[in-house]
Amino acid sequence: MMRKIAAVVTAFVLAFGISRPLQANAQEATDTLAQIKQAGVIKVGMADSVPAQQKNPQTGEWEGFNVDMAKNLADALGVKLEIVDATWSTIIPSLMQKEYDVAMVDMFRTPARAVTVDFSDSYMTTGNTWLVGADVDATDWKQLDDPKYTIVSIAGMAAVAQSQRLLPKAQQKTIVSDNAVAGQLEVAAGRASAHLSDLLQNALFMKANPNAKVRILGGDAPIEMTGYSYAVRPGDYHFLSFLNTWIAYNTTTSFISDRKQAWYGIK
Predict the structure, then answer these.
(1) Do 193 and 74 share a structural domain?
(2) 206 to each of 160, 184, 248, how far by Cα in Å?
(3) Model pTM?
C-alpha cells in the first residue's frame, strides 16, 4: 500500500514539475560576496550628493562620507575598491543590471524602492526640509499644497513621490540632473517655489550660498524621519547579512560617527 502511495506521489511531482522551480532557484542563487572575494574587487555605484559622495573638481576623484565607508568595506573584505559612476535616475537600474555589487549613496530606505532592491540596515537617520524662495508667503509646508506653487524634484530621488503625496494640489516639476543641488538652484533662480530635500543638504546649501534668495520653511524641524541604507539586488542574503554585520561593527567602533563628524559636522 505504501509503495503504491509513494509511486503516485512521485508521478504527480514529475508530471507537474514541482521539483523544477526548487532546482532552478538553487541554480540561480548568486553569492555576490563569494564573487567579490574571488574577483578581488568590490564594485560600488555612486551618484553625486554633497557631502555624502561627490567628485573633487580638481582631482576628479570621489570623496565624501560614503567614499570613506566604501574604502572601509573594501578593507574589511580584503579586496580593491572600484567606484562606478551613476546618476540618481540610474542608480537602482544599473544595480539591477549588475554594473556594480552595491549602491552606496545617501539613499532613503523607502517601501517604493524596496519593491525593487533589498536594503541594508540604516547607517544614519535623517529627514527632509522644504527649501522655498524668499518671496513664498507660506509659513507652514502644508500651505504649499496649492496650484500657485511649483514644487521641483530631481528624477530618481525619493522626494519625487514624497512631494506628490504630500502636496497633490501643487504643480509638480521633475528635472533630470547629475547635480544633487539642482533642485535648490531651481528655487534660488526663481524657476520653482519649493524643493524637498535632506535637511543636511538644504542646510549646507544655505551655508554655501548665504546670498541666495531662499529660506528653509519652518526652521530646521525635519519631516518624516527616514534611514539611509545601502542597496543590493534582491535575494542576495549572504552579502546583505555581511553588510548589516559590518554596519553594526562600525557603529560600535565609532568609525561611522567619526566619519559623520568629519563630513556632516554631526555625530
Answers:
(1) no
(2) 21, 9, 33
(3) 0.73
